[in-house]
Amino acid sequence: MSFPHLLEPLDLGFTQLKNRVLMGSMHTGLEEEKGGFEKLAAFYKERALGGVGLIVTGGISPNLRGRLAPNACQLSFPWQVKKHTKVTQAVHEAGGKICMQLLHAGRYGYHPFSSAPSKIKSPITPFTPSAMSARQVNGTIKDYATSAALAKKAGYDGVEVMGSEGYLINQFISSRTNKRDDKWGGEFKSRAQFPIEIVKQIRAKVGSDFIIIFRLSMLDLVDNGSTWEEVVQLAKWLEQAGVTIINTGIGWHEARVPTISTSVPRGAFAWVTERLMKEMSIPLIATNRINTPEIGEHIIASGQADMVSMARPFLADPDFVNKAAANTPELINTCIGCNQACLDHTFALKRATCLVNPRACYETEINFTPAETKKRIAVMGAGPAGMAFSIYAATRGHEVVLFEAKSEVGGQFNLARKIPGKEEFDETIRYFLNQIKMHNVELRLNTRLDASVVRDEKFDEVVMSSGVKPRAINLPGFDNPKVVDYQKVLNGEVQIGQKVALIGAGGIGFDMAHFLCESESSTLDLERWLKQWGIDKDYKQAGGLTEQVPEDKHRQVYLLQRKTTKIGKGLGKTTGWIHRTVLKQHQVETKVGVSYEKFDEQGLHISVDGNAEILDVDNVILCAGQVSNTELVDEMKATGLPVHLIGGVDVAAELDAKRAIRQGAELAIAL
Ligand code: FAD
Ligand code: NAP
Ligand code: SF4
What is the distance between the alpha carbons of residues 218 and 258, in angstroms, rounded to a whole number? Predict the structure, then answer.
């Protein structure tokens, strides 16, 4: 067996898990949709069939005040049990096991009824919580126990008590948020009584044959978080109180350190769990940026943890574990940590899905069933849109020929993967290429598709996925070879000097600035990355933060935009702040409200708020958006065949890979 440690069963005494892989908790948005639990059942069933050892649901509140949002899911009454049984039955029929996560949001609740140990607003929510009375504290503990008992009734194999990421339990544990002067506040021992009492009361209600996972905040990454000694002490008290497994929590949501985005090194926090392994006898789970069976195997084989938790990787590929067990990890659709279709959707109150797998959370709605009429289809361009269309159409039985003008598949992903911290984009190209082979898509590299080929080879339909090209800007001096577009730079076609101005501060402008400032990616060097973000492995201060070590300044970079809005405003909700911080770390100078005048031997002439300036730069790089690559559209339509446009060639504005891949999938279903 290739991943013997990862796939080894775990004996919990009263029950056995078939392997060491936990599907971590994720809120999908289906929990609140009408008829959402049927869809949720199908979603979890596919993951159970895919071989995962244990699933944890998205957070369910034990009471009204604990809800994350006004309409969020709660389990407090017997009449709420029935819909959960749909999920548990589906998972059990598929041979899986599932725990329900109990999550009280405390001051992170996005509604006016939120409550917390003390009346202190969080920096990431607009509502100030009310301070719980002693009666409310006791009532809340009871609500946890009642909810766990109802979860057992609904058929769950256990519960996970969410004690990390800065939610209510964390708020009780930490002096940062707990200023109480009754028995639930003061010394650490008193602050820790809240989670201990919750676990004790749950155990008393559910008996001994029920899994209780406790997600323990082991590295808060905020000032006045827990000390390491407190983490160890609490873990031991929780074990005595009846916890079966301890899962790792890293960072409060308000922490200003990235913990799960793609620029976080793989397995970046396994050392935290490893520290606790030396102290405990119950199983421990490592978490955060574990996305391949190789890294999971390494963590368990090297004794850093007993299990690994992966959440988003199960959005990207429900069959992750089966593929690892079949020793075909190259067929896994790897989560690239982009957050674009999962967490960013959740924050926008939209159903979560996955950029690389548009079926995620749409299992009952998106299916690639055999086509009634098999067609021969020519596809122009093997970027994300063309590759996605090709594999899904071939899955349906169509005969697909995929033409790519360049010598490799991937389109603009071949540029994205060169950005420091975006190395994961490689995995998507690898996955799609293997799918192209598996589904017998005929791939013709170095071959430009045009109308003559379409006519000669007797195709039934044409799909144009020829993507985008950089927007050109015609200003005096912009024909100088020192003014180049982002593609030329990332393709290594030009030498760039030490002083550079970037025109355009969208996603690509930010990426380009990062590329120019970081000659070697810190994502590939864990120790350097920890220093860059001020994470102290020695926990000298409570919470594990220390001074950030500034990165060396390689270049003078100016990032410019015409709009007067905040720079980077349009970046991803959950990742934009990381990109902005990285540019600050590299001392990139940003300017908004810029008018561009000309480029000459003095540099780039601009005006800002009517004031003329000359930026003394060696190069100007155009990151000013893109236009559709439509040059062959008319000629293709003239063939008389049905012609479909997907991805960038369809609409270039606000194009991202999420739309490109999804459009490919949707067209494949429609043809
Ligand atoms: P393209 O990727 O442009 O692919 C088009 C393909 O068609 C090319 O391979 C081209 O060679 C080929 N082609 C063109 N004409 C012909 C022809 N006549 N015959 C044969 N082949 C032809 N998106 C995100 O969602 N998240 C990100 O974090 C992100 N980061 C990015 C970072 C950078 C630096 C860049 C450049 C892009 C990034 N993107 C990101 C954008 C993303 O890569 C694009 O949205 C996506 O690639 C568009 O897909 P597409 O298939 O429509 O077009
Ligand atoms: P973009 O986000 O639309 O940004 C284009 C930039 O160029 C803007 O800053 C715009 O700002 C400027 N601009 C537009 N027209 C201009 C003109 N005529 N002259 C001068 N400046 C002009 O596009 P992008 O950066 O090329 O990114 C393309 C897509 O890739 C995006 O939609 C994004 O979703 C995706 N992407 C995502 C990420 C990510 O991290 N998620 C990273 C990279 C790319 P002003 O008009 O104010 O000057
Ligand atoms: Fe992973 Fe991105 Fe998919 Fe989210 S959207 S699961 S981060 S690949």
Answer: 16
